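Table S7 (text form). Paired inputs.
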Amino acid sequence: MVENDNKPMIKGYFPLGEGRGIQLTVWNNNLQLTRSEKNLETGKWETKQEINLAPAVLKELMWRIPIILDKMGVKEKA
């Protein structure tokens, strides 16, 4: 069976408060983060920012994220 490159492997959504959120989409060759906000006048969701991260960038971020979170003072809950 051949994988369809036009379909995402994983999709997720993280709400950021009323009318705001980030959609996460994992494709076979990149991670896409789309920040969107709901237009209060029209009621439609609008894309405000889109970031695509290649596997090479994700590998560089992977080991740095715990350090960044530590610097930001974010502690894991046991």
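Next pair, protein 2 of 2.
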Amino acid sequence: MTNSTPPNLGAVITNPRARKVVYGVYAIGAFAIGGVAAYFLGIGQPIPEVVVGAQAVAAYTGIGVGALALANTPTPDP
């Protein structure tokens, strides 16, 4: 069995400024979606299906955003 080298996820978005934009857009979007859900819960109304769906999409895309952040976090030397 041969060992294969995993792909360099840090090469997905190499520009730090572009990564900052991706992180910012994700954070603002997730915050807004959560705020809308909290509003409906606060007024005692059911959360609209579109908001529930948006929450699911935000959670799913968080996997990729987290992987991008992890790939670009420097590891300390042992």
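The CA atoms of residues 41 and 50 lie 15 Å apart.
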